[in-house]
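To whoever is on call:

I kicked off a structure prediction for a single chain this morning and the downstream step that reads the tokens threw a length-mismatch warning. I double-checked the sequence; it's 159 residues and nothing unusual in it as far as I can see. Pasting both halves so you can look.
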Amino acid sequence: MRTKTFKVKDIFTIVNPKGHLNTKQLIPGDDIPYVAAKKTNNGVAKMCSKDNIPATDIMDGNAIVFIQQGDGSAGYTTYQPKPFYAISCVTCGYSPRLNEERGLYLVSILDKNKTFYSHARSWNQRLINETELPLPVHTVQSPDYELIGLIVGGWYRNE
């Protein structure tokens, strides 16, 4: 399998969450996950109601979430399959080529960067954009997303 190193900015469109409500302002509920600087539970800090969250603050699902800061969490990523609420401690990456299998593969590669970041050195937007990902390629120009899907699909079938 041939690989090539790509930068995050070449794979994803990076979007900053628009959310401004803090954890205490969110109404408990089961409508939407609140994704925060948390390395456990796939980054979900809690489930909340949409009642006081503006629709424009809800992030689309099918996203890679880059945890920028947090004690012990900076440098981790999660894959969020469904819409979620987030604030400025994370950044979101979107790609039309992303799906759950590809997202899980990319998270496993991106999480190798964890050792570079901490509460004292956050994973800011510039560093996220320049983060390198070694990905399988079928041509020198683009990642082999089909192979990524086959690799992850094989992991699922072999569990």
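Update from on-call: the warning came from a stale cache, not from the record. Cleared it. Sanity check on the structure: The chain has one domain: 3-121+130-157.
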